[in-house]
Amino acid sequence: MIPAATEELIEQFLDRLWLQQGISKHTRAAYRSDIVNCYKFVRTRQRKDLLTLSAVDLEDFLLWRRQQGFSPRSTSRLLSALKKFFQWAVQQQLCSTDPTAKLQRPKQPQAIPHSLSELEVEDLLNAPDTSDVIQLRDKAMLEILYATGLRVTELVQLNVDQISLQQELVRVIGKGNKERLVPLGEVALEWLQRYFAEARPVLCKQPHDWVFVTRRGGPLTRQAFWYRIKYYAQQAEIRSHLSPHTLRHAFATHLLNHGADLRVLQMLLGHSDLSTTQIYTHVARERLQQLHATHHPRA
């Protein structure tokens, strides 16, 4: 437990961050957890208020995290949360100095996203039995993921008014409430239309705006659909590593393999920084090297 005044202070900061940057509920929860865990760590050693934490206190916490084996990525996010909190606190004149000012983010190894081959994607997309309304729903969702490169969270949160069947477009609300328009493609559009005609009317118990719904008619969660992806991968006997972003990675990699422009891919994926998109060039290059080694007579 932490003092009620500290809880309120953290909520005030998160409210301001939401108003200014439009952070998602997942980011909000992660930032809150990071700040609370840091504060609890220091409180076990000395009775301090959150606003009186020093750079030494924070360095001790970061050292403890390294010793516990926390990843550089999660530590970087934690440090981002702390930096934003104390910058806000200084601006609000709640404290005079920012203890995070000289703290450096840990260097992160460049993680190469794993992607399925085009044949593996075909097997995954063909795994659902579309005579069943739930699997028809899943088929439409898988096709849309691969056709658009949406994040799973963006997919499950789609509302009906975000989709234009006539224009073959989906209006995606991504991170930071940023909007982008992404083409659906003929195949994904066909399965989406089938879902709307044959499955959604059966699943929807009462009118609402969610595109994809559960058997009970409620909104589908990210975690529930992730279990569905793993189920179909097992049905298709796909043994490659899977993550909720697997089809997003495949979308990006296969587009690059077929000559897509990196800037266009950046727009489709909703990346604010081109450097985030550039990591897929490494995946595409690796794939081309594998094809060369396999098929060239002098490789």
Q: If you had to describe this structure to a student in words, what would you say it looks like?
A:
This protein is mostly helical and 299 residues long. It folds into 2 domains: 4-91, Orthogonal Bundle (DNA polymerase, domain 1), CATH 1.10.150; 118-295, hpI Integrase, Chain A (Orthogonal Bundle), CATH 1.10.443. It is 58% helix and 4% strand. It has helices at residues 4-21, 25-43, 55-68, 72-91, 118-125, 133-148, 152-156, 186-203, 222-235, 246-257, 262-269, 274-295, and strands spanning 163-164, 169-173, 179-183. The protein has a 3-stranded antiparallel sheet with strand order 1-2-3, with no helix packed on it. β1 (163-164) and β2 form a beta hairpin. The relative contact order is 0.10. The mean pLDDT is 86.
What profile does the largest beta sheet have? 3 strands, antiparallel
Rg, alpha carbons = 23 Å
Work out the number of β strands.
3
**Count of distinct structural domains:** 2
Shape: globular
Oligomer: single chain
What class would the helix/strand composition place it in?
A: mainly alpha
Count, helices: 12
What CATH calls the topology of the largest domain is hpI Integrase, Chain A
> CATH homologous superfamily of the largest domain - what is it?
Intergrase catalytic core
Order of strands in the sheet with most strands: 1-2-3
- The end-to-end span amounts to 63 Å
In CATH, the architecture of the largest domain is Orthogonal Bundle
Strand content: under 5%
Helical residue percent? Answer: 55-70%
Mean pLDDT: 86
Strand-and-helix sequence, N→C?
Answer: HHHHHHHEEEHHHHH
Low-confidence stretches: none
